[in-house]
Amino acid sequence: MTVDKLTLPSPAKLNLMLHILGRREDGYHELQTLFQFLDYGDELTFAVRDDGVIRLHTEFEGVPHDSNLIVKAAKKLQEQSGCSLGIDIWIDKILPMGGGIGGGSSNAATTLLGLNHLWQLGWDLDRLAALGLTLGADVPVFVHGRAAFAEGVGEKLTPEYPEEPWYVVLVPQVSVSTAEIFSDPLLTRNSSPIKVRPVPKGNSRNDCLPVVARRYPEVRNALNLLGNFTEAKLTGTGSCVFGGFPNKAEADKVSALLTETLTGFVAKGSNVSMLHRKLQSLL
Ligand SMILES: C[C@](O)(CO)[C@H](O)COP(=O)(O)OP(=O)(O)OC[C@H]1O[C@@H](n2ccc(N)nc2=O)[C@H](O)[C@@H]1O
Ligand SMILES: Nc1ncnc2c1ncn2[C@@H]1O[C@H](COP(=O)(O)OP(=O)(O)OP(=O)(O)O)[C@@H](O)[C@H]1O
């Protein structure tokens, strides 16, 4: 049966740890990071068109149509596959932009997987991830959809199986520019590489945290408040801050207290992304 319409989730990610090992000649940083997904995210709806046009119908404040990672992903896949079909796309956007939870990268990955399915291209995940990497360092992990230890700029992935707690995620109302944090002279860039797997306990720090906390009082405040209840961590280059709890009831209780003054949400950690669970159910 051919399908011409599809709605797919686009989950957030967390960086459970993030170490910066050095800077490459092209300016990008060599990292070691542990990615896990959240059962929380945007939802994209795709409808095939036969005239080759690619159109995103939902407007994004501050992001022109052709700069949107959804449109960029669709255009690249169309060009590289030589497909003559087009697509109409709508998104229900709930993930904050510039929050370090990978919304843009996740949207790009959902688009690649959705169009591969609808256009019946038959590309495998490695090929889609390689295309995705040209759109952003975090796209490959969303394409593969498995919690992973990542090296390089985030593209060398080894599956890992961290615990899957319930998280409270706080969303300070500031957008942090990833480029700005990576160019800060005070950033730690010489962490020793971890050579054993799974990542040994005691390595959960995020090397970006001191620089982000110094620049953004809102992030500092969120870390302090959540830190009263559990280990409070920064994801990516922020702004989001998160902490794990053994069950939903405890996470809900802490969230209710903190979201009186801050924005935030509760979501379950997951080692298989909800995008991949949905795609599996379609096969
Ligand atoms: C920090 C992480 O969020 C960890 O998951 C990601 O590595 C960031 O990935 P991203 O948002 O997709 O970032 P990109 O759009 O690829 O890069 C934004 C900018 O951040 C800097 N950048 C990013 C990733 C990296 N490993 N080294 C860098 O120096 C570069 O100046 C780059 O121009
Ligand atoms: N579909 C999209 N969704 C979100 N942002 C987009 C999208 N397309 C382009 N962008 C641009 O990308 C920037 C980064 O967005 P994103 O949501 O990926 O940030 P992030 O959560 O900090 O990501 P990361 O964790 O990968 O650093 C936005 O500020 C916006 O200008």
Automatic annotation (TrEMBL):
EC number: 2.7.1.148
Gene Ontology process terms (BP): isopentenyl diphosphate biosynthetic process, methylerythritol 4-phosphate pathway; terpenoid biosynthetic process
GO molecular function annotation: 4-(cytidine 5'-diphospho)-2-C-methyl-D-erythritol kinase activity; ATP binding
Residues binding ATP: P96, M97, G98, G99, G100, I101, G102, G103, G104, S105, S106
Catalytic activity: 4-CDP-2-C-methyl-D-erythritol + ATP = 4-CDP-2-C-methyl-D-erythritol 2-phosphate + ADP + H(+)
Enzyme class: transferase
Superkingdom, natural source: Bacteria
Record-annotated GHMP kinase C-terminal domain positions: 208-256
Name assigned to this protein: 4-diphosphocytidyl-2-C-methyl-D-erythritol kinase
